[in-house]
């Protein structure tokens, strides 16, 4: 009986998988902390990207299984310091970034056709929250001279949101050299329910007499996020 059921499921899914469309996109991310996270952080900015497969090429509704990555910087500090105590006449930039990096698989359901295509989605994944300090050449863009992670932690996130896509280009004829079939503007709103994490923020690192002190914060990491970008269907 189990073998028959497995064969039946395979026969149902194979046509859908064969007609699955590859989708990819990227955009600018803006985020506002919620809950007790906003007591410590005001705003975050960054960018994200995703790749997915949309199933249901005949139906007006498309179901997309996707993987999403997102980077958010919630505080940057830059200061000028002597290169060393023995070389005070050479200065460097010391840059400290507080950031979050999220990896989220998820499911999206939306309209396949139309001038405006609304959709809803949900996701569940991991959040890496960290603070990193690096040394750069002063007033000269270059690779970091040295860098170190001051503090880091992991937690989970659960996302629920939606948005809409506006098509701006569509391939009307079959051109073998062009695999892209559609380009769309993608605007998404999402509430991320973040788990509890320990982290640093701007001002959490103090230095005195050659010693470093970290004042860590423990709280939830909820966010309301807006992403504005582009989506491509192949």
From TrEMBL:
The keyword Signal applies. The keyword DNA-binding does not apply. Residues 6-167 form the Outer membrane protein beta-barrel domain. InterPro entries: Beta-barrel_OMP, OMP/PagP_B-barrel. Pfam families: OMP_b-brl. Residues 1-20 form the signal peptide. Keywords: Signal. Coiled coil: none annotated. This is Outer membrane protein beta-barrel domain-containing protein. It comes from Candidatus Glassbacteria bacterium RIFCSPLOWO2_12_FULL_58_11.
